[in-house]
Automatic annotation (TrEMBL):
Keyword Kinase in annotation: no
InterPro entries named in the record: ARMT-1-like_metal-bd_sf (IPR036075), ARMT1 (IPR039763), ARMT1-like_metal-bd (IPR002791)
Biological role: Metal-dependent phosphatase that shows phosphatase activity against several substrates, including fructose-1-phosphate and fructose-6-phosphate. Its preference for fructose-1-phosphate, a strong glycating agent that causes DNA damage rather than a canonical yeast metabolite, suggests a damage-control function in hexose phosphate metabolism.
UniProt-recorded name of the protein: Sugar phosphate phosphatase
């Protein structure tokens, strides 16, 4: 049962003054829709598009512009039209339960998910464009721009992990922990491509245990840091015969690369016996991973045009691919990930998925959207414990949840003390530390 505190906590609305929700609804959403219009125009202008597809693309662009017009004029949210998908009735039922609302006066989590479902509905209703990823061009372009970061991480992984033998050195427990912290932070900051936030430990640092100061320096912007707790859990349970780790992915491109690298590390280090990656079923929140992004990742990593520095990538890429081919890393999708429901609704809306996650050794949720859904996008006091903010996925849920999230919204729980909150507010006022992506959380709950 939810606590009295949980009942009193409301979610962020796009009408909340000073919120990132309001800023996003008023400035970003229309730009995102315009980006889809531009993408369709560019694709339709390509020479290999036949006339029927080109004609239909014009109708799609008109429908997308209609959504943009609704947003700019703050129209009321309307019921979804039937596009042949089984979830339409559920969406409309949820909209009805909210009551009268508009684009700039609605629950942010619902409104944003609703927008992407409206976009997808246009493609679902088309004849020739149902499988088209309107965000593919943007995802590919962004990944290629991260060339230096990809090549640097490939070099570091091959030299200090895959070929050093250090991860299998059972006698050097402290070095193994430092490497776990560093690789977890690589996954944490993976959507930033800013490797200056990492400790950058060398093999010598680890062998001589000189990496502690670098780790501590890199962690100053992690406002809720449960790394010690998750490491203690992993070491305490290392003898389990089956240790499947689930990673609920966030962004494609560079972040997906760091997530696959993290999965490989978890396997190479013997922390996991298998890793399952959860993708979205359809294009979502611009850059979220869909199944085809996995293939696209390896296509780009194999390309000398995209990544000309091949010394380490030519050794790393086949190694990563082998994990997929052997079944050590698998992928899966569930329709629940592309609903507007918070994860507090998982027990009633996706009980089979809940059971799968309860059977997992560890479930890692990546990114800001997953964190918002884990915490019901609630305006929690920042000192609220992560366990309480998780609601039914917290205490006695039997799910071991690790959230790796850079702060890019209005929600953040788990800061240990009010004194630390006050210091953050002074250091990055007006909620900047919750919104600007330069601060983060590594939040763990064992579900006991």
């Amino acid at each position: 049962m939810p606590s009295a505190t949980m009942k009193a906590i409301r979610s962020v609305w796009t009408s909340d003054e000073g919120s990132m929700a309001k800023q996003t609804a008023e400035t970003r959403w229309a730009k995102i829709i315009q980006g889809t219009v531009d993408d369709m125009g560019e694709t339709a202008a390509m020479e290999d598009i036949d006339d029927q597809k080109r004609v239909e693309s014009i109708a799609i662009q008109i429908a997308l512009k209609d959504i943009k017009n609704e947003i700019k004029n703050n129209y009321a949210l309307t019921l979804l039209q039937d596009d042949g998908k089984p979830d339409v009735q559920e969406w409309n039922k949820q909209l009805a339960s909210i009551g009268e609302c508009s684009w700039i006066n609605c629950p942010w989590l619902f409104g944003e998910c609703y927008m992407y479902r409206r976009i997808q509905g246009i493609f679902n209703s088309s004849r020739y464009w149902q499988d088209y990823d309107v965000f593919r061009r943007q995802k590919d372009s962004t990944f290629i721009k991260s060339r230096a970061a990809v090549e640097e991480l490939a070099s570091r992984y091959m030299q200090t992990i895959a070929e050093s033998g250090l991860v299998q050195d059972e006698s050097n427990e402290e070095a193994k922990k430092l490497r776990f912290i560093e690789m977890t932070e690589v996954a944490l900051w993976g959507n930033a491509t800013d490797l200056s936030l990492l400790a950058n430990l060398t093999l010598e640092d680890l062998q001589q245990l000189q990496g502690r100061d670098a780790i501590q320096k890199s962690q100053r912007n992690i406002v809720d840091n449960d790394t010690d707790d998750v490491w203690a859990y992993l070491r305490r349970t290392a003898g389990q015969s089956s240790r499947q780790i689930d990673i609920v992915l966030d962004n494609a491109g560079f972040e997906l690369f760091t997530d696959v690298l993290y999965a490989a590390y978890l396997l190479d280090a013997g922390i996991a016996t298998s890793v399952r990656l959860h993708t979205k079923e359809s294009p979502w929140f611009v850059s979220d991973v869909i199944p085809s992004d996995i293939e696209s990742l390896f296509k780009h990593l194999d390309s000398s045009d995209c990544f000309p520095s091949r010394e380490f990538l030519d050794r790393l890429t086949p190694r990563l691919l082998k994990f997929f081919q052997s079944g050590a890393i698998t992928t899966t999708s569930d329709p629940f990930w592309t609903t507007s429901f918070s994860f507090h609704e998982m027990p009633s809306k996706a009980p089979a998925l809940l059971k799968e996650l309860q059977n997992s050794y560890l479930v890692i949720f990546k990114g800001d959207l997953n964190y918002r859904k884990l915490t019901r996008d609630g305006l929690w006091p920042h000192t609220t414990t992560y366990e309480e903010a998780l609601g039914p996925l917290g205490k006695q849920s039997s799910i071991k949840i690790l959230a790796l999230r850079t702060n890019k919204s209005d929600v953040c729980a788990g800061v240990p003390t009010q004194r630390e909150v006050d210091a953050l507010n002074e250091e990055a006022p007006n909620g900047a530390w919750i919104q600007n992506g330069k601060y983060a959380v590594i939040s763990f709950n064992e579900g006991q």
